[in-house]
Design goal:
about 85% helix; membrane; DUF4366 domain-containing protein; transmembrane; transmembrane helix
Length: about 80
């Protein structure tokens, strides 16, 4: 009978030790899940911001290119 009690005590001790490891694993898993969710929300917010922000530089470049092309080349420089 002493042998069975020893075996049961050892089994309970092993269960307690493994349960502590499982608690640590679930805690790490929850932390990583929260960090992933925050990163996903930030990425979506940035994508929406970039999509709705107007591109003012594009309008400016079009006007500048037209003036530059006319001033740089003259009619005398053309090759016939």
């Amino acid at each position: 009978m002493n042998r069975i009690e020893e075996l049961l005590a050892t089994t309970k001790l092993n269960d307690m030790m493994h349960k502590k490891d499982d608690d640590q694993k679930t805690t790490v898993l929850w932390i990583l899940a929260i960090i992933g969710a925050v990163a996903a929300v930030a990425a979506i917010a940035y994508a929406v911001y970039c999509f709705f922000t107007p591109d003012y530089l594009e309008d400016f470049e079009e006007d500048f290119d037209d003036d530059f092309d006319n001033d740089f080349f003259s009619d005398e420089d053309e090759v016939q």
